[in-house]
TrEMBL record:
The lineage of its organism: Bacteria, Pseudomonadati, Bacteroidota, Flavobacteriia, Flavobacteriales. Transmembrane segments: none annotated. It comes from Zhouia amylolytica AD3. This is Amidohydrolase. Coiled coil: none annotated. The keyword Glycoprotein does not apply. Gene3D superfamilies: Metal-dependent hydrolases (3.20.20.140), Urease, subunit C, domain 1 (2.30.40.10).
């Protein structure tokens, strides 16, 4: 077999680039990594290379004031030291990586997922319902010791799935409770270290079994002293029986350790609304938490009448509290258009992929954007292109006026190449993602 000593990493990269149709020419300019046997060798963040024939969006086409199409053109993009160094006129005859006229977009971000506990990579198991959230907590307490034995391996498998769907970043909630203590966090950190060249993450210390329902306080305090990014929470009223006590603990722990906050809130009744309003008050009292506080799910918003939704949306926006929304959630449709209209940051994620809570996760946040477009009637060129924000967690190529805002020199080189003509087509058709680059590293 020719070149039998090729590394597994090089083999996978070579195969992926071949499938993507990327053409690597035999020489790059001085200072770039060398191309050998069709493989761009170890394109670390210190390397420099050029992509030619890159399709980028440049503006909108209007008819009677409505956006009816998206303009694109071909460019050459230089990537160096993990960033986009320049975007310039296309040099189709240059010695560089040929993007084959594929559309470049920001890579995706899964902003609510549980990488630390999953069946993914193991045998199939359907969900076993055990009497509400507290029943599921009891089931999880039984299961965790066995799940922890190979949770690092399974986390790596999920990360690979996310990468294959165009995501190079995730916000992962990590169990912190008396059963696993900090072991789930340690196991996930190992997986992330193994994948760091092609994937990034921020972590939420998540008291899955309640802060006070089980004696989780000392373990949350230990977790807060690590390099996690957010202090999490779970349904303060229905699990811990006390909104103020639990939220106060969460807020103070975040303040003491300069962390953000991301609380799971499933409650749809009066307690859910009271939790939202109390958190808004606490953030307004502590402005350092503005822009660093999130409510995941927050299903109560979907149960409010329209005027109340608007009132709460205004308050969330003023406190700079974001919503990380599940799309969809059974019969409940969240008021995402209202939230975005009033300036609330809205993101999404897969939540569970395949675990004891849910088995419907696909690993694709583009799928979430597609479903959202259908739910909210975003069928126009303009509307579809705006829904891409849900997949990228923010940056999209054109602003609302059609001015090009991405990519720019200095942006991190976290990009995908897609077989599509424009963002609107990508969202509507869930177009094939052919290549992923993270911090300049060609993942596939």
């Amino acid at each position: 077999m020719k070149n039998a000593n090729i590394s597994r990493k090089d083999f996978l990269r070579n195969s992926a680039l071949g499938l993507a149709g990327l053409s690597l020419t035999p020489a790059l300019v001085k200072g770039q990594s060398k191309v050998e046997s069709g493989v761009l060798k170890n394109p670390k963040t210190t390397s420099r290379y050029t992509l030619k024939n890159v399709r980028l969006e440049t503006g909108f086409v209007y008819e009677d004031g409505d956006v009816i199409a998206t303009k694109t053109d071909l460019f050459s993009v230089v990537i160096a030291n993990g960033k986009i160094e320049s975007v310039g006129a296309n040099k189709s005859d240059a010695d560089s990586i040929d993007a084959k006229s594929m559309l470049m977009l920001p890579s995706f971000k899964d902003m609510h997922i549980h990488l630390d506990k999953t069946y993914y990579g193991d045998k199939w198991q359907a969900v076993r319902r055990k009497g509400g959230v507290k029943g599921m907590i009891a089931l999880e307490q039984q299961m965790l010791p066995e799940m922890l034995k190979d949770s690092t391996y399974k986390a790596e498998k999920i990360i690979a799935l996310l990468q294959s769907k165009g995501s190079a970043f995730a916000r992962s909630h990590v169990n912190i409770e008396p059963t696993s203590r900090l072991q789930s966090l340690k196991n996930l950190q190992k997986a992330l270290a193994h994948k760091e060249e092609g994937f990034g993450a921020e972590l939420v210390a998540f008291p899955q079994h309640g802060v006070y329902y089980t004696d989780t306080v000392p373990f949350m305090k230990d977790a807060a002293q690590t390099d996690i990014d957010f202090i999490g929470g779970l349904d303060p009223y229905s699990i811990d029986g006390a909104i103020e006590k639990t939220v106060d603990f969460t807020v103070q722990l975040a303040l003491d350790h300069n962390k953000g906050i991301d609380i799971h809130l499933h409650e749809t009744g009066e307690s859910g609304l009271k939790t939202v309003e109390y958190l808004i008050d606490k953030v307004n009292e502590n402005p350092n938490l503005k822009g660093k506080t999130y409510l995941s799910h927050c299903f109560v918003l979907g149960k409010l009448d329209k005027s109340k939704q608007q009132e709460v949306a205004e308050k969330l926006a003023a406190a700079q509290i974001g919503i990380v929304s599940t799309i969809p959630f059974g019969w409940l449709i969240m008021p995402i258009p209202t939230l975005t209209k009033y300036g609330v940051e809205v993101m999404t994620g897969n939540d569970s992929i395949v675990d004891h809570w849910n088995t419907f996760g696909t690993g694709s946040v583009l799928y979430k954007a597609n479903i959202a477009a259908q739910l909210y009637g975003q069928v126009s060129e303009f509307g579809l292109s705006r829904m891409l924000k849900l997949a990228t967690a923010g940056p999209i190529p054109l602003d609302d006026n059609g001015a090009q805002q991405w990519p720019k020199a200095g942006d991190e080189a976290n990009v995908i190449l897609v077989d599509a003509s424009c963002s609107a087509e990508v969202v509507s058709r869930m177009s094939p993602i052919e290549s992923l680059i993270y911090k300049g590293n060609i993942v596939y």
